[in-house]
Amino acid sequence: MSKRTQIDETIQKYFTKKEWEEMCSYEKMRYTNIKLNYDMMCKLGLAPKTPDFMLPRKRKVIDNDTESDEEWTPQKERITRKVSFKHPNKKKQDVEPTQTDTSSDKMDVNGILRKDLDIARTTLKKIARNIQKLEDNIYDTDDSDSGDEVEEVRYPRRSVGKKDYREAEIPDDDHFIYCDDCEDEYEGDCPVHGPLLVIEDKKIPADGSDPMRADHSIPNNLSIGTSGIKNAGSGVWAEVPFPKGVRFGPYEGIVTYDSIEAHRSGYAWQIYKNGRPSHFVNAKDTSKSNWLRYVNCACNEEQQNLVAFQYHGQIFYRTYKPVLQGSELLVWYGDAYAKELGITRGDKNSVPKCIMDKD
Ligand SMILES: C[S@@+](CC[C@H](N)C(=O)[O-])C[C@H]1O[C@@H](n2cnc3c(N)ncnc32)[C@H](O)[C@@H]1O
Prior knowledge:
By secondary structure, the chain is α+β, with helices and mostly antiparallel strands. The protein has two domains: 9-126, no CATH class; 176-340, Beta Complex (Beta-clip-like), CATH 2.170.270. 24% of the residues lie in helices and 16% in strands. It has a four-stranded mixed beta sheet with strand order 3-6-12-11, with no helix packed on it. Helix 2 (25-43) runs parallel beside helix 4 (106-139). S-adenosylmethionine binds at residues 227, 229, 231-235, 266-267, 293-294, 296-297, 299, 341, 343, 354.
């Protein structure tokens, strides 16, 4: 036999005196359970919808002794809902009797209560599972995938470990985002450290009417100027400090399938679909691209402050470490292209062609 919940007398405040007096103990228990469930979800930070009965109601006359049903606007709605409760499908003999109540609608109400309790229990079990997974994730005690169905909280699809930011990120599943703090990938935003802080471009029409669209799209607090890298042309500079975890982009340009043209331009990112090369986004044309085209390739890991990543078929840049005010935004183009620029990171014997002006 299921244990009965104690009626929480504090819920009385959500009802009029008359309503409370007329309410049978099953209803009070039902509201108690709804509130218990709600409180638990709040404690877990799940931002549940406030149960209707707990919402403030308009009251025409604030006098407990004299009020009638007509004095409360939403009460009519509540009473309508109360009578429209569906009878449980279970046969009456299947329903466990409770110890104390003798009211005529005992079986029906009991069935409703049991259903509510079942829902609450299932929800709490799911929450408990989610918490466990989160804890496992935070403390890195268990990387295994239990195969459990988890709702509302997203978990890493796989433990990818610490990134080598010199490696090009070739996604086989680009709806996952790497979290630099967890060192893991999540479907969408990291449930522990939250979403990346998105910095939007200035909105400039991409119809080709502005030949300098790329320059004009640059957000506040960033500027385009001569790069600090010798012979690299223009670059992008931070006018203010940026924290780790800021997202810029997407990288905009013309879609092309011509790999030779893309390669020659020096402004094209390759897009992958299911781990295979698909097409290129070429930002050579300044009337069809945005400011991200001006971000240069870092000469070494110390300089690098951005990583390029593909998300939902587009290339974005994110700060993976704090960017100091007055420093140049520098990303890694990928080993092959960097080599062509004379950047051979990790190769101590290479002749350093890629040098900053101040070096
Ligand atoms: C996407 S563009 C970057 C913006 C370019 N600096 C500009 O003025 O338009 C890529 C080109 O910038 C230059 N570049 C970028 N990083 C460089 C580096 N580390 N060393 C030398 N040239 C670099 C190369 O000419 C490269 O083809």
